[in-house]
Specification:
By secondary structure, the chain is mainly alpha-helical. It has one domain. It is 83% helix and 0% strand. The protein has eleven helices and no strands. It starts with a helix and ends with a helix. This is ABC-2 type transporter. Keywords: Membrane, Transmembrane, Transmembrane helix.
């Protein structure tokens, strides 16, 4: 059973922790800032740059942020306290996901302003933003739960974030690579941001990605709880 008071307490703690962590806050603005610079410098490629950096923002950023948050909890030994106090894996995930996804979507809304002409489908954009951020948060929490130290967490989170967010960009230039990357949720997120509507294939691929990563997170959380 999900208890709202548990989720509220974790959410309030996350807000306080992140406000004090400038490095994490910077991650939420780095890709919108780079995209703004690129779109102003090379106006003719505006659609391409917005699609690329928006995908990175909704895939790479949540992975690294969520992993960093979990690593910090483990370093302070508060994660063990939360587990032993009866916080379920679902409560912990939902609290972290709500915080990261909301902040990611708020800062990511700047991509809509950069486009300016209203050509981006707002519904598709935010559905991609939310779905991509949720799956990415799960990946980040898996990394943070699995890793033994903050340095190990960063060493694993950054490469994974790059794989899921950079492959869609590279596939733009290499169609052979696209035949592989399309099975990753990051590629589907870029399709949606680019205006491609939800298809049966997109729903199936994103759902399978979500189910696999969710199962892995639950397994790692329970193992960490018993290992202490």
């Amino acid at each position: 059973m999900i208890r709202i008071n548990h989720m509220t307490a974790i959410l309030a703690k996350d807000i306080k922790d992140v406000i004090r962590n400038i490095q994490v806050l910077v991650l939420f603005i780095v890709y919108p800032a780079v995209a703004f610079i690129m779109t102003q410098s090379i106006g003719g490629e505006k659609v391409f740059f917005i699609g690329v950096f928006a995908t990175m923002h909704f895939v790479f950023t949540p992975i690294v942020v969520a992993a960093s948050m979990i690593a910090e909890e483990k370093e302070k030994n508060t994660l063990r306290v939360l587990r032993m106090s009866g916080i379920s894996s679902m409560e912990f995930f939902l609290s972290t996901a709500v915080f990261v996804v909301v902040l990611d979507c708020l800062t990511g809304s700047s991509f809509l302003l950069m486009q300016g002409d209203g050509s981006i489908n707002v519904g598709l954009f935010y559905s991609a933003a939310i779905f991509g951020s949720v799956i990415s948060v799960l990946i980040g929490m898996c990394v943070g739960t699995y890793s033994k130290s903050p340095s190990a967490t960063n060493g694993l989170a950054v490469p994974l974030g790059m794989i899921f967010s950079f492959l869609p960009m590279l596939s733009y230039f290499n169609k052979n690579l696209e035949s592989i990357s399309k099975y990753l949720f990051g590629q589907q997120i870029q399709y949606l941001i680019g205006g491609q509507k939800w298809t049966a294939e997109a729903v199936i691929i994103c759902s399978i990605n979500f189910i696999i990563i969710t199962g892995l997170y639950i397994l790692l959380y329970r193992r960490a709880k018993t290992d202490g």
